[in-house]
Specification:
- The chain is α/β, with parallel strands linked by helices and 484 residues long.
- It folds into 3 domains: 6-95, 3-Layer(aba) Sandwich (Rossmann fold), CATH 3.40.50; 106-313, 3-Layer(aba) Sandwich (UDP-N-acetylmuramoyl-L-alanine:D-glutamate ligase), CATH 3.40.1190.10; 323-471, Protein-Tyrosine Phosphatase, Chain A, CATH 3.90.190.
- 34% of the residues lie in helices and 25% in strands.
- It is built from 14 helices and 23 strands.
- Strands 8-7-9-6-12-13-14-15-16-17 form a 10-stranded mixed beta sheet, with helices on both faces. A 6-stranded mixed beta sheet has the order 18-19-23-20-21-22, sandwiched between helices. Strands 3-2-1-4-5 form a 5-stranded parallel beta sheet, with helices on both faces.
- Helix 3 links the parallel strand 4 and strand 5.
- Helix 5 packs across helix 8 and helix 5 (118-131) packs across helix 9.
- The chain is globular and about 60 Å long.
- The termini are far apart.
- The mean pLDDT is 91.
């Protein structure tokens, strides 16, 4: 596809699809897209690029007829645009396929994979290479604050991208990352997730084993020393494998960890010998693991530890990862993407370290295909009980999950109560805002956890608090006038 063409993306508001849209536009293609609904940050991102997004899905969105359609992996048969392109045999492909064919061929491909930490680790790795002057290309599953975007097409020979284990498209049910043919891999973790496409942990491990099997002998794998699942996935690697963690056997060992309210610092030992001291403004022990993994792979690509340290010190995180959305009258509202019990636990622990004297609220939307199911129900209750107050929205599109498989919110609330904490269920975002806004007080921290738009709660709660502040001041003025 070397001549200008019109490419249409169905499901363009997904993080990866929106990023691909920007990359294709930068390559000179005419890009359009459609989706059922859009919400920040990707809606504002696409708007900033001037890429039109048609809503909702409609057959007319394919007029004029595009030269190629990229089908997002959330799309299934019955979608009106998908049905039209099949009927009329409009050429189509998946995101991973066009990504490989148009952008990865001829590049040194570094893939960050794992159940948790992919987005942040990919962002760190890209920023390290950028700080070192290597001008990498990158594709990240979120808006990286240092770049102000989720993708970049650099002049260097490296392409750094997030490797998703989720399926590719309705016509290709294999994991996305199998299309990327990586030269090196960071493997952050392997846990059961994506219950809609993986039957159990063994199936998840099989996907990661296949990824490991793609890495050439000259490549490198940096893996978290986190348990038997990761070890099983690495058993048949043909390339060198280096592990990072706290165990004495880790090639990259973390020591002297200090989680402070404004900064985090730690030391890294390489093969048992002091190697470097790092710090950054992020909170959370899990981010130290992410940073150490990125540092280890960067070192294997010849980047000096001084450049790595400078990059980490100036790293500014990713949108929707412990992102402070508002601070109103001493109340801090935080947006985080966590939608798995392990990620929720890590997020809460990070907030505890960052705000040690605050009352911590967690507001959760069970939205992902795994979170809506009862497969991790006990672990979910255990992680949520680490907060002081918990508000849970009704399950997103609960009717799509068979009742026998559906998350039992009442049981989750009961289990949280058995652990001595308070939890409540609400119909939607509006009900949550109306209930908790009057209860919030200075020094409270509210962490809103969802992998979707959550009914606009990120804007609605701050608006309600500001309105209450205004009304409070207005009443005080009126009372003062009466007294005078």
């Amino acid at each position: 596809m070397t001549t200008p063409k019109h490419i249409h993306l169905i499901g363009i508001c997904g993080t990866a699809m929106a990023s691909l849209a920007g990359m294709l536009q930068e390559r000179g293609f005419r890009v359009t897209g459609s989706d059922a609904a859009s919400y920040p940050p990707m809606s504002t991102f696409l708007d900033s690029l001037g890429i039109p997004v048609a809503q909702p899905f409609a057959e007319s969105n394919l007029d004029p007829r595009p030269d190629l359609v990229v089908v997002g992996n959330a799309l299934s048969r019955g979608n009106v645009e998908l049905e039209r392109l099949l009927d009329e045999r409009i050429p189509f492909c998946s995101l991973p396929q066009i990504l490989h064919d148009e952008f990865l061929v001829g590049k040194d491909v570094l893939v960050v994979a794992g159940t948790h930490g992919k987005t942040t680790t990919t962002s760190m790795l890209a920023w390290i290479f950028e700080t070192a002057g290597l001008q990498p290309s990158f594709l990240i599953g979120g808006i990286a604050e240092n770049f102000g975007r989720s993708f970049g097409l650099g002049r260097g020979r490296h392409f750094i991208l997030e490797g998703d284990e989720y399926d590719t498209a309705f016509f290709d049910k294999g994991p996305k990352f199998l299309h990327y043919f990586p030269d090196s891999v960071i493997l952050t973790s392997v846990e059961f997730d994506h219950a809609d496409i993986y039957r159990d942990l063994d199936a998840v491990e099989t996907a990661f084993k296949r990824l490991v099997n793609l890495v050439p002998r000259r490549g490198r794998i940096i893996a978290f020393d986190s348990g038997e699942s990761v070890k099983r996935c690495l058993l048949k690697a043909f390339c060198p494998v280096e592990c990072y963690g706290q165990s004495e056997h880790a090639d990259w060992r973390i020591a002297n960890l200090k989680l402070e309210t404004e900064r985090t610092s730690w030391s890294v030992l390489r093969v048992g010998k002091p190697w470097a001291d790092f710090e950054f403004p992020l909170g959370g022990e899990y981010n130290v693991w992410n940073a150490t993994a990125a540092a280890a792979l960067a070192a294997n690509y010849g980047i000096a530890k001084e450049a790595i340290a400078q990059a980490l010190k100036t790293f500014r995180s990713v949108k929707r990862r412990l992102e402070v959305k508002a601070e109103i009258d001493g109340i801090t509202i935080i947006d985080d993407f966590a939608h798995h019990p392990t990620a929720i636990e890590q997020t809460i622990r990070a907030l505890r370290a960052r705000y040690p004297r605050s009352r911590l609220w967690v507001v959760l939307e069970p939205r992902s295909n795994t979170m809506r199911r009862n497969v991790l129900q006990e672990a979910l209750a255990s992680s949520l009980a680490l907060a002081d107050q918990v508000a849970i929205a009704a399950i997103f599109k609960s009717e799509a999950i068979p009742e026998a498989e559906r998350l039992d919110l009442n049981r989750v609330v009961d289990e949280i109560g058995e652990r001595g904490k308070s939890a409540r269920i609400f119909a939607d975002a509006d009900a949550i805002v109306n209930a908790i806004a009057p209860e919030l007080r200075p020094n409270d921290v509210v962490a809103i956890l969802s992998n979707g738009g959550f009914g606009g709660i990120y804007e609605k709660l701050p608006q309600r608090l500001r309105a209450g502040k205004f009304e409070g001041k207005k009443s005080a003025v009126q009372k003062s006038g009466v007294n005078n």
